[in-house]
Amino acid sequence: MPEQRKGSCQCGAVTYSVAVDPLWVGHCQCTNCQKFTGAGHATNMVVPREAVAVQGELKTYSYEADSGNHMKRHFCPTCGSPVYGESSGNESVVVIRVGTLDDPASVTPQAVIYTERGCSWDTMDPALQSFPGMIKR
Questions:
Q1: Whole-model pTM?
Q2: Is 126 exposed, middle or buried (CB count within 10 Å of its CB: 0-12, 13-18, 19+)?
């Protein structure tokens, strides 16, 4: 049976629950994730859209990714915490920011993507599978 995971923004104005185990968990070192997090990478989990229930008001920032896909980043308008993102490339899933989980240790990263854009000081576990760009499926 999948674990029910819950999370929130920093101030608690936005909360969410995820009713399934993640499809994928990993670190992304792309420059968009670096700017969005203010760190060297973002740790994300991909889950089916229909498995996520969000309560509270979100603001959205949209941009075009390297792939040409239309991206949306959803964040709390009060504290600015990034909560989740989505891509026109696969509208059946959303990307939850693992740091917003009540228990971020409940998931384990499987890979690192966009290593070609990683900062030398942001070292990743060398045992993780790594990709210079986006994983191609």
A1: 0.91
A2: exposed
For residue 1, what pLDDT is reported? 64
- Judged on CB neighbours under 10 Å (0-12, 13-18, 19+), 2 is exposed
Among residues of the chain, what percentage have pLDDT more than 90? 88
Q: Please, are residues 37 and 130 in contact by the beta-carbon 8 Å criterion?
A: no
Q: How far, in Å, are 12, 44, 48, 125 from residue 108 at the CA level?
A: 24, 10, 18, 12
Question: What b-and-e string marks burial along 40-67, b requiring 16 or more CB atoms within 10 Å of the CB?
Answer: bbbbbbebeeebbebebebeeeeeeeee
Residues belonging to the chain: 137
CB 110 within 8 A of CB 24: yes
Rg (CA), the chain: 14
Specify the CATH class of 5-130 in words: mainly beta
